[in-house]
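Re: beginner question about structure tokens

> Can someone show what the tokenized structure looks like for a real chain? I only ever see the sequence side.

Sure, here's an example I had lying around. Input first:
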Amino acid sequence: MKEYASENIRNVALVGHQSAGKTSLVEALLYNTGAINRLGRVEEGNTVSDWTDEEKERGLSLSTSLVPVEFNDTKVNVLDTPGYTDFQGEMKNAIRVADSVIVVVDAVSGVEVGTELAWEYAEAYQQPIIVTINKMDRENASFEQTLAQLKERFPAYKFIPVMLPIGAEQDFKGVINLLTMKAYYGAGADRSDLPAELQDTAEAARIELVEAAAEADDKLIQKYFDEGDLTNEEIRDGMRKAARDSNLKTVPVFVTSGQENVGIVPLLEALVVYVSPPTMRRVQVTKPDGEKDFLLAPQSDDNPLAAYVFKTVNDRFVGTLTYFRIFSGSISEDTRYYNVSRQVEERFGSLIVLRGKDQTNVPVLHVGDIGVVSKLAETRTGDTIGTKANPLEVTRPDFPEPLYMVSVTPHTQADGTKMGPVLSSLCDADPTLRWRFDGDTHETILEGMGEIHVNLAVSRAEKLGVNLDTAMPRVPYKETITRTAETTYRHKKQTGGAGQFAEISLRLEPNAGNGYEYETKIFGGAISNSFLPSIDKGIQSVLPDGVIAGFPVVDVKAVVFDGKEHPVDSKDIAFQIAGREGFKDAFNQAGPVLQEPIMEVKITVPESMMGDILGDLNTRRGRVQGMDSEGGKSIVSAQVPLAEMLRYGNDLRSMSGGRGIYTMTFLRYEQVPSHMIDSVIARAKQAAEASS
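And the corresponding structure tokens:
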């Protein structure tokens, strides 16, 4: 692949719902530019984008794939993103580094959850949006219905067709280009006259296109008023400006069939014409003092370097591959650069241009380009490569909180030694993946956006040499008391020689919100001051593993108010034991209860599914806090115990046919209902026995 100057580079993120046909569309783009000699198919596992073993097995895009396409002396860096909602972090980072977003919409299914997520992220970064209505060859495909649905779902936007379909379903055979007013059959490389029956429809649609282009520029609108038309070049310029104008919110609409290779060349031409060169991109940065600023267009190779790392891939044999987008400056091979985020220097060896898994080395990458470098030691996803003299950091996206968790345990002791570093490297590469040790349940927890996301991480850990078993995590309950109780406990042990003796009188009091507190009210020297810390130490030995169910004890105040000691047999260990056992005795008399984590949940589903969602929340002990409607969607806010939400993602996907999404954050702890405490304790004891 030759070296491309910035003005001949375009960066686009291909986004949309799962199975909208993004990967097939990329195959068609490659095929029509001569990069491949046959169209691959997802179901056959031979596409350029979905090249990993996991993607071939599942028939599903699991990560963003970089696929440069060369057309008309221009390199179009296509970022083929996964549409499955588990991998929205990949999509969000791809949109961050692109200069335009192509939303692929299924002509049968229309606007889906993945469409809406992609739109939301594109809006967040003020990215120009292009729509292609894909899979027009499928049964029940409808350009008109899909366009109407887009207008209904996103009423703030103006959807302006640039192409119209010729035929539909099995008769879909080409497109009409409303600029040239010609028909493009098949892939669309050759022009033909318009079908007579579509002449009037095309002329009406062209008027709408010209008016939308004219609105973007005062000179253009004046010319349109004076002459009644614009040149093709003026229409292109106007539409490009209109798409970037946040007030006009104009969206050019194309129509394709990636799998059948129809309408692809006009889309390629659009990527060159309607997507602005990367030098025109404005990007937000963070200064060393934390203040936000912008790198304003035009960007240049001569400006200070600012490159954002949007993806890292760990390979057991190759090492780490680091994907970056240059927002300012340029990067050359065999040069040292400064990681602003981690304040370390990194050596960039060979620069790589990736097309799926195929690598090509290049000597230099110019501003706006996207490239890859291997074997960086410290750099992680989200870092900025820049300069010490001008340490600006490209602002990272905000990623959603994890929704799905599993408990992971290593197969062997050797796996246990490597587990922490490997999990850390996976989480460094994926901002939506996290791991932690839960001190309350004594489990290692791996968290992600869904079951497939977490299972993929476990599979990748295996390829990095760590075999893990997974299980449902225990809910981190806590134990506390509801009333005051007193006890006197005597520890006496005589085994020949020196014995052990300690007696304490202990009172436990509820201490809501203040954790554990220890106080002594000993009068007259009943217990020596030297033994008082021993009692506390004995009590604290109980707190981590609890009294009634093996969960941590919280919000308890222990007051030692009397006791006895023996001049010979009293010692530190005796008072530790007395403190420990006396605490347990008093705890059991003080109305012990369990507390459970309550989550704040926000669920978004089509309005028609609201009843099912509310009924299901009721079975999960959920308390609905509010309901709202937005663009044909219902948004339910509720407070639900974590115990009822551990696998909610799977259930919601089943209930909503994949059209529901939700977010979940920790809110507070609340007391477990009394009728459920016995069953929770029984399960906890069973789990403890099974692990012992």
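Each token stands for a local structural state, so reading them left to right follows the chain. Residues 6-191+248-276 form a domain with the Rossmann fold fold (CATH 3.40.50.300).
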